[in-house]
TrEMBL record:
Taxonomic placement: Bacteria, Bacillati, Bacillota, Clostridia, Thermosediminibacterales
Sample GO molecular function, one term: protein-N(PI)-phosphohistidine-sugar phosphotransferase activity
Species assigned in the record: Thermovenabulum gondwanense
The PTS EIIB type-2 domain, residue ranges: 4-94
Known EC number: 2.7.1.69
Name assigned to this protein: Ascorbate-specific phosphotransferase enzyme IIB component
Length: 97
């Protein structure tokens, strides 16, 4: 599998998406997973060509077809739940190839 591309998104791509990006990068680093992580605004999500999208749940309708795996987060400060969802998404991506 090529390097996984993960996109975090929020309304303007500068607030919660940046926090999510840093949190996802920390998870990947701790697990030794090599992936590219970017944060963008929700309007750019369809053209991001990402393998996985991580967003807050209220953006779910806007991103449901934007990537192979969509991770919806209700509380992005719940690090353990975010970790579990991101790692499950990675496993799904690895099994698709």
């Amino acid at each position: 599998m090529d390097k996984i591309k993960i996109v975090t998104a929020c309304g303007v791509g500068m607030g919660s998406s940046l926090i999510l990006k840093m949190m996802v990068e920390d998870i990947l680093k701790a697990e030794g997973i090599d992936a590219k992580v970017e944060n963008i605004d929700i309007g750019s999500i369809k053209s991001a060509n990402a393998d996985m999208v991580v967003v807050q749940s209220f953006h779910e309708d806007k991103v449901k077809d934007a990537a192979k795996v969509v991770v919806n987060i209700d509380n992005f400060l719940d690090k353990e739940k975010l970790k579990n969802k991101v790692l499950e998404g990675i496993r799904v991506l690895q099994n698709k190839d």
